[in-house]
Each structure stands twice: as structure tokens, then as C-alpha cells.
Amino acid sequence: xxxSRRGFIKLTGAGLAASSLGALGFGPAGEAxxxxxxxxxxVAATETRNTCTYCSVACGILIYSMGDRAKNARSxxxxxxxxxDHPVNRGTLCPKGAGLLDVVHAPTRLKTPRYRAxxxxxxxEVSWEFALGRIARLMKDDRDKNxxxxxxxxxxxxxxxxxxxxAASASSSETAYLTWKVARSxxxxxxxxxARV
Amino acid sequence: xxxxxxxxxxxxxxTTLTPPSxxxxxxxxxxxxxxxxxxGCKACQSACMEWNNLRPEVGHFEGAYExxxxxxxxxxxxxxxxEYENDVGNLEWLIRKDGCMHCEDPGCLKACPAPxxxxxxxxxxxDFMSDACIGCGYCLKGCPFDIPxxxxxxxxxxxxxxxxxxVGVGLEPACVxxxxxxxxxxxxxxxxxxxxxxxxxxxxxxxxENAGLxxxxxxxxxxxxxxxxxxxxxxxxxxxxxNPTISKLVQFWKGxxxxxxxxGIAFAAVTAFVHWITVGPNDVEQNDExxxxxxxxxxxxx
Lengths: 197, 302
Fold this sequence. Notes:
The structure holds two protein chains of two kinds.
Chain A: H1 5-23, E1 46-51, E2 60-66, E3 76-82, H2 95-98, H3 100-104, E4 114-115, E5 124-125, H4 128-146, E6 148-150, E7 156-167, H5 173-185, E8 188-193
Parallel strand pairs in A: 7-8
Antiparallel strand pairs in A: 1-2, 2-3, 4-5, 6-7
Chain B: E1 9-12, E2 29-34, H1 43-51, E3 77-85, E4 91-99, H2 107-111, E5 118-121, E6 126-128, H3 138-142, E7 149-151, E8 156-158, H4 164-168, H5 174-178, E9 184-188, H6 189-205, E10 212-214, E11 224-228, H7 248-278, H8 286-301
Parallel strand pairs in B: 2-11
Antiparallel strand pairs in B: 1-5, 2-9, 3-4, 5-6, 7-8, 10-11
């Protein structure tokens, strides 16, 4: 671009005049209004109740996912916060619970059952069918071999002491009750449900 | 983004226009941080980053409880830990949630030269508008609490918004909601002051004679207040300023010099116009050209 000395001075003068007008308050009137808060991101998100996956306190959480569950929309969790109606935490969460979103989307999160065969050095992804079938088979074998129906005095005890079970914390009272019933109905005594019911 | 009808602001940086202010019946909001009930769990930090979609880079252990080490463009609130030995030689672990105080008279807004980059809503929240920010860093100079941070990637300034998006739809800020001990409370400013009063009374009855509310008058009060067990010595809480005020330099520059400078510009413009009308432009005449030629020749000759 060719610019003469005189032209350059004129241009500089015009720029100075324009910015001076701005400083004097002659800016465009509409400009003063161009500002707004960040749009609230959960307006039409789907809200789902659940229990925090971490500890035995079992805080209630609200899970927000994108989409309204329409056929063509894929839900994806975008935000998690405490459930104000839950009697345990009344909306509050600990730092781990407050960061649950990153647990959901962690690339290292376990999503399928994995199996390490006896003698093998690595875990392999397997189907739920295989995993449940194998667990049931081994439980049945072990229970048949080691079940104690009577103690030395001859009293019926129905104990199965050689296999234990650990259950999750992300369960409601009802889920925990059913888990307890299933485990105890097998005679299992080594049993811990993190929710400690 | 123009959305004036939903939020009315009462202050706007580098603007001489009076903002629209017909909605004069909005409740002022406040966040009350009760330092005496804080256990330093950092749930507030976690909730802040989750809600605001901030994920700072994972840093390194610096030998302190603070994690991350300092406020940053993507760290809007930070627990600061101080080990304080009291008068009788006992250790007190003072944990303060640091972040924007949302001053009634915000130094950042006063110092900001970019029109509309910093606004204050009628509910008291001071918010940064990134699209108007020019990244000059004057807000850092203006802030008496050392809060704003400039992002080196986009050269814009960032800080806590008091979750203006949540408050705007009637929710409490994310940090307030998460706090498991109820050390962070949110409500109208008068309710928060009342609640602070109850807490202070309780603390006094338990031997903290100097318990008090931190709502510094030097910045017109703040919309984030602290309950301190030692309100007489705010400095022991990781350097909370005793009597924060906007820097004298900023006050002088924006308070006194700016109007004088603007008057000067206006005076110069008017004078130039009057001169142009009465005297007119300075035309080059034939005898000027002759004189110039003579001088040129003389210079070449010597």
C-alpha cells in the first residue's frame, strides 16, 4: 500500500479523533449493552438420580446428560452435582464426588468384564455371559465342596465360608437389601457391601 | 450476546454512559466463607472446575498443601493453608478459600481501559466479559486481593464469576453447593450478615474473643465475606489484606487524571476548530517557495 507522508498524518489524525470521541462518551449507544452471563448449560438436559460410586457414605447425585432421550440423540453425561433432596448429603459432595464427571469419562475406566485365565499374564476382554457363567460355575463347585450345613453340636448353620463377596457402594437402600438377601441366601458369611446395610 | 433485559448492570469498565438501571429492586447476593468451619477438603475447588469446565494442567508437588500452587486462568478458587501458632503456643491450621471477593467498588473495573470488559451486576457480581478483554493486565494492578490471572494463550483475564450463570437462573454457586461442612453459604447479603453474626457470637462464647466478619469497607464491602476467628489479624490467613483499598496509582490515574485528560482533548479539539474558523489553514505562498529554494541552494553551495 502506498501512503504519502501527508496521507499518513491525515490517517493518524483521524484515528486520534475517533478514539478521542470514544473517550468523550460518543461511542455507539448499543455497545454498552453487549454483555451477558454465560448461558446456563443445563436448561433442557436430562436429569437422572443416582448414588455416588465412591465411599460407604453413599451420597445422592444428580446426573445431567445432553439430549432429551429422543430416538436419534445419544445421551452423554455433561455434569454431575449433589442431590439436594437426598437425606445423606442434601446436595453437598466431597472433592472426589464433585469431580465424578471425570471418572465417568476417564479413558482408564473399566467398562466390560475382563478375565485373566489361570497361568496367563494378561487380562482379556470377555462377554458378560462368559463372566457370569464362569463365576456361577466356580461358586457352585466351591459351595458344593465346602458348604457346612451343621456345626459340631449338630445345630443347622448353613454356612459357606470359603467364598466372599464385595458389593458396590453406588446402591440405594433397596439395592443393598436385595444384594444382602442374595448373598445370605447362599449361606455366604464373608460379605461386605460398602453401603454397610 | 446482547441481553440487557435479563441482567442489569450498575457499572461497566471504561464507559461514561450511565448503564440502564430501572430495575432497582434486585436482591444483592453474597457468599459467606466461614473459615472456622472449613476442613480444607477442596470440594469447592473440584466443583468449581467441574461446573466451569476448567481443567488446569496437572502440576508438581511444591511442598505445600495448596494444590494447584496458585490461582491461574483455569483455577478460579484455591484453598490456602497457613500453620499459625497462637498466643498460648498452640497450632492453629487456618484454611482460607481464596478467590474473587466481588467488591462493591471493584478495583479491577476501575482500572480496566477496555469498554465493557468488566461489568458489575445489580446483584453485586463482578464479571469479566472475555470478548471485550484486551489482555492489558490493568485489572491485576487494580485488584487489592491479587485475584485475576491472564491466560498466556488467548491473552485474556480470568477469575471467579460467582457462577453468574447459576445465580442468574436462581441457583447457588457450585462451590457453595458442594461444601460438605456448610462452611460456604450463599444468600442475600443481609441474610449472610445475620448468619455471620450468629457464628461470631458462637465463636466468642467458645473463647475466640476476636472473632468477626471480614467485609472490608475500603472497597465498599464485598459480596464474598469471611468469618474469621481472628478478625483483628486478617494477615495471618495467608496474607488477607488488613484494610484493602484500590491502589493509589489506579485511583489517581482513573479518578483524577482521566477526566482532566479528556477535558484536555476536548479543549484541544475546540481550540483547533476555532483556529481553523478564524485563522484558517496555513497555505504555502510563492515567497515561501522562493525562500525555501534560496536556503536549499545556499546549503548545497557551502
